[in-house]
Amino acid sequence: MANIGFIGLGIMGMPMAGHLIAAGHQLFVSSRSARAAEAVALGATACDGNAAIARAADIIITMVPDTPEVEQVLFGADGVAEGLSPGKLVIDMSSISPLATKDFAARIAALGADYVDAPVSGGEVGAKAATLTIMAGGGDAAFARALPLFEAMGKNITHVGGSGAGQTAKVANQIIVALNIAAVGEALLFAAKAGADPAKVREALLGGFASSRVLEVHGERMLKRSFTPGFRIDLHHKDLALALSGANALGLPLPQTAFCQQLLNSARGNGEGGLDHSAIVRQLERLAGHSLGDE
Amino acid sequence: MANIGFIGLGIMGMPMAGHLIAAGHQLFVSSRSARAAEAVALGATACDGNAAIARAADIIITMVPDTPEVEQVLFGADGVAEGLSPGKLVIDMSSISPLATKDFAARIAALGADYVDAPVSGGEVGAKAATLTIMAGGGDAAFARALPLFEAMGKNITHVGGSGAGQTAKVANQIIVALNIAAVGEALLFAAKAGADPAKVREALLGGFASSRVLEVHGERMLKRSFTPGFRIDLHHKDLALALSGANALGLPLPQTAFCQQLLNSARGNGEGGLDHSAIVRQLERLAGHSLGDE
């Protein structure tokens, strides 16, 4: 059993921390966190800030919204780096820039500590059920040290490669999910506008090469007009922004991802950033002047 | 057991006809077909042309390349319509225009006969294994009459709706498959260009929301550089042309489908129309100046 610092007790982080406590680990959280008391009630120990967490724990997990927050938590005032000593391990499970991640890993390595990037997919449901998909990047020994913790929080765990490879896989995941949602949206709109029942069409397609998790899950949400997240447009917008800023830096054209991010911009412009990402279809419906259903 | 005319003994049609003969039906084929002798050897009876087939059979199945060929076979010189009489049933299993299909069905109905559009997906492999996905449009009684024949040729059989609904579902299917292939292409190229192993990334993604038949099958083809069809670029190009001409007629914008058809144009311009549709990735690689692998 390990001494683990956990920074980022949000919608995802709190149930993940809970699974680690339930697996018998000693958790350290920041007393400055809004939900510190909740974690302490589960068995965690409160520390006075993030540097103190890094002093108390051998492994420090971060689960925060975006790249700037990870940088702040690791390297800002009262950051993890201040309390870190050689031999410790930092695991960032946030979904952030793959390029920044390589830099963060190098800066942590310069302090004598290891770094694993390990973003997740599966959302709040997966976090609560401990069925998250975890995509990890880092050295073999560091991954092996992190693996028992991952197994307490997730199901499909892959060591993708070196530093940044986990974040790269997560970006690739978000590209595919967004484009698959938009593809299902165009196809069902074509079916509806051509006079067929889009629900029947979806059913006919589930058995063949068009089948996907997105056709199952998000296709159904589009037809039932059930846009309660799930995974919010705002977050997917952030993830495709990561894809496009990475693509810009790499000189890589991602024309379809760029277009799909404009659909997410449309959603935000129409005040729908808080809806589930299956609401991408609503932007295609705006273009079409035709909806798959009433709400 | 039924008397069935079968017109279109191609790569798909010949094994489909074979399954109908094996199921005990009496088949009539045209002696003018290049592969008539092959069908006769399986037990079919040769007739002198398509009008003669329509006189001999109660149910006439067509399985030809595109909309003009269906029109020619049904309504051209020596066409099915010449030999048709009230109470017979025409089943078009080609993949053609949903809008033209509604017209063909109305013209067949004017002759007192029924019409079912029933395009398939699953390719040559599915035709040979009798595991085709069949999407049918037409009246309830006509569908019920066709169903035992479908069951001899396929596995996932859906009565989607009235005339044209089968073709509409097939177009929707082809939109999703093409866009999912292009999505996997962009995602794996991002991964490779960012320095990760795209094969490991694909593996990590198969367990989560990005998973699809396309990620499984076509993703693997992209990585193994295995572009032997499968399903040819030329045919998928035709299918997206059906989607876009339908969309034009309906006043429906399909921006992503339009872009993806340009990728198929790129493939044809580069002499790759005969490759498997997973070679869409090769056009993204041209844009990127970066390939997922050597060939």
From TrEMBL, chains A, B:
A Pfam family: NAD_binding_2
Keyword Lyase listed: no
Residues annotated as domain 3-hydroxyisobutyrate dehydrogenase-like NAD-binding: 164-283
GO MF term set: 2-hydroxy-3-oxopropionate reductase activity
Domain (6-phosphogluconate dehydrogenase NADP-binding): residue spans on this chain: 3-161
Family: Belongs to the HIBADH-related family.
Protein name in the entry: 2-hydroxy-3-oxopropionate reductase
